[in-house]
Amino acid sequence: MHTPDETTALLARERLTTHCESMKQQLLGLLDSKGRVAEEIHAIRKLGKSLRGGFSLFRLGKSAALEIQAIGRLLSGPRDAVSRLNTWNKLGWVGDPGICAAIAGLLDQQTHSAARRPPPETIAWCVDRVSAALEELQSLPADHLPERISKGLAKLEKKALVRCRKLDRRAEGDFHEARKAVKAWLGAIVFLPQDSITADPILPELAELLGDENDLATLSGWLANHGFTKRFAPDLWKTIAAARENLQRKVIKDAARLRAAGRE
Length: 264
Fold this sequence. Notes:
The chain is mainly α. It has helices spanning 6-29, 37-57, 64-74, 76-91, 97-114, 120-138, 145-165, 172-189, 202-225, 234-263. The protein is flat, with a radius of gyration of 20 Å.
């Protein structure tokens, strides 16, 4: 992408501002949630990932983006519980009936326990975080925006491609870092006019696969922390390892296609 003109840059800032105001409204909506807390928080966290990409686009990844990241982490409990249960169900393991019942029952219980509205003080703090991020965005001089966007997008793209090149090593941390980098890249381009940049169609598919692989990694950590270790459920861990290996093969294949498409 060439350096955008000031009109394009201002439009990107306006879009990012609008999305931030939408997050504020969604956060305040939690005060009067009608029993759909997990779904509402999922929407907030999904929007937050895009906002973090947007702030990184303006080279505010180490400041304003961290304000948004704090919100996602604070509200992670309800959605994480739902995600673990969904990942468990998708895994489809039908081994030891006692282990299956114990895991499914505990996951289901945690999902119900987590479906409670955050306290008003917590929501107020989150809204303040969005306001702080917005204040920093609005303080940027208009004539500096085009260059910031150009450099910000180049950095996001380079980081995603570098992370994807490391996936052949199959290190768990590499898949996690690649997921974050790809999502940041995708989140950033949402705020740019469609005719200013063409997103590779491989990217959304890659992000989805990386998300599924991360869900299995997260479930693995939860199982180990709750006593369902390889010693007590070896067949379960074999199933998880096979599922992750399958996803990792697909991820590595898509990453190779991304490079072959001339994105290096």
